[in-house]
Amino acid sequence: MSDHPGPNRGMDDQQADARLLRRQQAIAQLDKNLDDLVRQQAQLQQQIAGCEWQMQLARQGDQEHLARQAWEQRQRLYLYLLNVQQQLEQLKRQRDSLAGAEAPAEAPAEAPGGESEASQAAQPASGWMNRQQRDPKGQQRRLMLILAGLAVIVMLAPLALLLTRHASAPVAQKTASATSTPAPTATATPAPQQPFYTPNGTAPTSRDCQVAVGASCYSPEQIQEAYRLNTLYQQGYDGTGQTIVILGAGNTTTLPTDLHQFDLAWGLPDPHFTILHPFGPPTPYTCPDGQDDLEGENTLDVEWSHAIAPGAAILLVIGSNDSGGSAQDNCGFTGLLDTFTYALNHRLGNIISISYGGSELGGVDESADEKRQDQVFFASAHQLFKQAAAEGITVLAATGDFGATNENGANATSVWNQPNVSWPASDPYVLAVGGTQLTLQDNIGDYGSEAVWNSGGGATGGGLSAVFDEPAYQQTSSNQALFQGKRGIPDVSFPAAINYALYGSFGQGELARLQPKWANWHIIGGTSASAPCWAGLIAIANQMRGGPVGFIQPALYNLAGQGMHDITRGNNSLDGVQGYSAGPGYDLATGWGTPIADQFIPALVQEINRLAPGCGSVQRQCE
Q: How far apart are CA 263 and CA 220, in angstroms?
């Protein structure tokens, strides 16, 4: 003990004051630097948009050399933008760390998602997962590891393995491509006979793909024609002025240039495209199949949402893939809910598309306490989805590719032997998108028929939730015996069979065996393709309405299939688990079916306007 407590306390106080002053000065300097970087970010984004506009003008004037110069400048600016964004995140972490040193040593306030506001604003440099994810018994880490199975992306490369695995599947699974109800008659506005966008002939055709691998590879123009989007494009409705927010994980190294090559091949305009890394760069990973499945998923979501809404801006938000485990465990999306919260809090756009999911039943080895944690997690996420609906944001999710079942845990090699559905598609505030198999009449893209997607060892997810009760909007359906008081999915569908053409230089595609020039073209599918395509449709609906359509389910179920192809053939039985059959009206394999865009979108907008202002005043429609 000191003999002179007074003077010593005074000196301590002076030192503490000096430290506090230095912290305040450092925070003030960081605030100034942050303001400068925010201004730089805005200027770069404007310059990038200017380059994209110059590219479009140059291409309209057949001046490809000028378009190329504008593209190269755009790429340089984009690299600067990424650098500025990384600096912003680093400075924010420093600033929040300093500010936190001044705060009392007490628990931070909880944010709406259950995570503290401080942890949302600044993640430690050594890793980007919150405490709940780092806890090996925490539900968020465990559930998101289930998402790591990439249950909603199917590429043709492993098709032989899938066929072998399901060689003993029931015959009904293999005949699910039977035709369904033909397309309704033409609308008052005839569909164009020629594509609105014109390919330049450098991409493989469906016939080329048939020769190479025995499967069609549909182009954007064929899908646009089949679902009657060309009429809307001619009227100026292509998603202009809208932003599609895509949640993803993993690498994006080749994505900007791959998207440009995709657009060149199909005659599409390059979109205003931005990639954000709010939680830092991806953790190194190795996928079990030897492919970069995460970059493949990012590429699929971006290219095909753009193919449906060529005028919409696209914002890809990369979340954490850090599992805290092996490199193979890192081949997944472990930070989905954090990434969704970031997109919601920063109001990045009115459309959020999610192509990942995992079984509501979780892992087969979960304890009773972990099961209870699952329910807390679902309830917490439900409040975030509800908030998005109240704010006019349409949230979409794929229903999965395991038919009426799902994998039974993280890195599972087997599936549940009972029907179950995929979350987050099962949440009532999420538009659940299932999959069909499309057959075209001709190479132009005229619609032929559709059935439930159930082929190649995969099938569309669909069934009844074990977590959520039947929402009010489904209680308006005539066949109430179908729901049994539970939330049914999907709500809608879009093609999911392995028929989509994708350009990705991250790996060699299946068509290299036919032509080396097509080495970067892949054939891909799954409900991972269906969900971003529907995100494009919502972008067009937002543009037509002049504002967000938001939470569309009340209007969708009121329309009761108006302006949609009613899919009536096929089922989603898979892996010995009895599924659900398609039939007239709503069903648990394809929902209300697939859109006839020039009929459905105007009808949807009209019904939403009739119900306006929606959730805010008609709360019963939102529950």
A: 10
Chain center to CA of 276: 14
Report yes or no: 553 and 453 within 8 Å, Cβ to Cβ.
no
- What torsion do the CA atoms of 591, 594, 600, 604 make, to the nearest 10 degrees? 30
Helices (H), ranges, 399-448: none
For the CA atoms of 86, 89, 95, 96, what is the dihedral angle to 10 degrees? -160
256 upstream amide cis, omega within 30 of 0: no
Compute φ and ψ for 596, nearest 5 degrees. Answer: -95, 95
* Candidate list 115, 301, 374, 450, residue with the active-site label: 301
Q: What is the pTM of this model?
A: 0.72
- Report the alpha-carbon distance of residue 199 to residue 104 in Å, rounded: 62
415 backbone dihedrals φ, ψ, rounded to 5°: -120, 165
- Of 145, 146, 163, the residue nearest 154 (C-alpha): 163
pLDDT of residue 86: 65
Tell me whether residue 301 is one of the annotated catalytic residues: yes
Query: Model confidence at 445, in pLDDT bands (50, 70, 90)?
Result: very high
528 catalytically annotated: yes
Q: Which of 359, 375, 354, 374 is nearest to 432 (CA)?
A: 354
Q: Which of 320, 359, 528, 530 is catalytic?
A: 528
Whether 463 and 565 have beta carbons less than 8 Å apart is answered as no
Q: Which residues contact 340 (CB under 8 A, 6 or more apart)?
A: 247, 352, 354, 381, 384
For residues 567 and 590, what is the distance between their CA atoms, to the nearest angstrom?
7
H-type alpha helices, 175-312: 206-213, 220-226, 230-234, 255-266, 293-308
Report the pLDDT value the prediction gives residue 494, as an integer from 0 to 100.
98
Run of H or E residues at 467: strand 463-469
What residue ranges define each of the domains in the chain, with the CATH number in brackets? 200-621 (3.40.50.200)
Rg (CA), the chain: 25
